[in-house]
Amino acid sequence: MTYLTKEPVVIFTHAGRTGGDTFNAVLNNVYDRKRLLHFETTMEAWTRLRDLPDDYTSILKCIHGHGAPYGIGACVNRETTYTTICRDPVNRVISQYYIYYHDSTRQMHERIHREAISLEQYAQMNQNEMASYCLGRPYYWPYEPHLNHLPKLFDIMESHFSFIGITEYYDETVFLAHKHFGWKELYFWTKSLENKKRPALEEVPEQTRSLIEQLNLVDRALYNYAFDRFQSELKNLSDEEAAALQEYRESQQVFVHLLNAGVELVNQELHRVVLQKKGMKIAILLSVPELKVFFQNYFELLNQNFGRAIDYKIYHFASSRELNRILENIEFPDYTIGVPQPGEELQLRELLKTSGARVDRLAFVINY
């Protein structure tokens, strides 16, 4: 069966220590979990994708994980597009070695300590990983990456990878991903699996860095290609898009501040909603009167400390009759935030649907 769809399935090819786990989390927020598949191994991906029923294939939106190298899309009876993130190859290898060295939950951790594997030895064992993923090793491309393979690699990147991010420019990477894949709302990010115990790049001996560089010449060529392509995209942003990128950077900083402030009462969805743009108009439908002061303080913090200029109104209701009266007179703003009593979210959601509220502009944000 051939599926006619305007949107290709997005396949995120995830090489280790490039910020991929953080990007996976972004994708998990963008796409409905029922329409997204994650694979840790290529064998798992090949096996499951070959057996996908047609009705599920037709609704699939995204595939991500270490098990999604280039070529995996051949198992999906849909148009696909690939994306990946590249990182400076020397820093990537150092980061990967030390996450294995310090994190006892990793399979490689025990071997590194049992065999006393040094960073230099590990670098010999793990060469050109980014290029391996983008060439499709081991199923689509059976060879170890070599400089002779660069024409093939660059042809794949040009023809099949619609977007390539850069780890060192993460705000810009997530912002441009919105643009490329048509995400209608902004999504923010928090670092996953950060290893604060690893040495800084400049603390690693120059001889070791030079060795890693020589062992990863294909990855270096791939990174340089990706970096130039990425910078070209940034330069080609319109004035309006450049201004939106700057606002996204500022909003990302506020997002991190709110998370670090430890506001445990609400989930991250509230922060994401209120940071969509400055000057948001937001209605809060509140049936828990004790939370009124919290929301007042929350929005005043954003307006006074971060200049968000949010126009918010809090509507309190104690019964369905009062809620219906509010809904009859409310002019629905950019977003509606529902704060029902525990267990009454579904009822409130249905009432809002029938009253004309946009379901895609509705959020429930309390951690009961």
Would you write up a description of this structure?
The protein is α/β, with parallel strands linked by helices. It contains 16 helices and nine strands. The protein has helices spanning 20-30, 42-50, 54-57, 89-102, 107-114, 119-125, 129-135, 150-160, 170-181, 206-215, 217-235, 239-260, 268-274, 292-306, 320-329, 345-354; strands at 9-13, 36-38, 62-65, 80-86, 161-166, 281-286, 311-316, 335-339, 362-364. The strands form two sheets. It has a five-stranded parallel β-sheet, with helices on both faces. Helix 4 (89-102) packs across helix 5 and helix 6 (119-125) packs parallel to helix 10 (206-215). The two termini are 45 Å apart.
Overview in brief:
The model has no long low-confidence stretch (mean pLDDT 94). It is elongated, with a radius of gyration of 24 Å. The chain is 48% helix and 12% strand.
Instruction: Please give the radius of gyration in angstroms.
Output: 24 Å
Q: Whole-Å distance between the termini?
A: 45 Å
Broad structural category? alpha/beta
Query: For the record, what CATH class of the largest domain applies?
Result: Alpha Beta
The CATH architecture of the largest domain comes to: 3-Layer(aba) Sandwich
Could you name the CATH topology of the largest domain? Answer: Rossmann fold
What is the fourth-level CATH superfamily of the largest domain?
Answer: P-loop containing nucleotide triphosphate hydrolases
Q: What is the total tally of β strands?
A: 9
SSE layout:
Blueprint: E1 9-13, H1 20-30, E2 36-38, H2 42-50, H3 54-57, E3 62-65, E4 80-86, H4 89-102, H5 107-114, H6 119-125, H7 129-135, H8 150-160, E5 161-166, H9 170-181, H10 206-215, H11 217-235, H12 239-260, H13 268-274, E6 281-286, H14 292-306, E7 311-316, H15 320-329, E8 335-339, H16 345-354, E9 362-364
Parallel strand pairs: 1-3, 1-4, 2-3, 4-5, 6-7, 6-8, 8-9
Helix pairs in contact: 4-5, 6-10
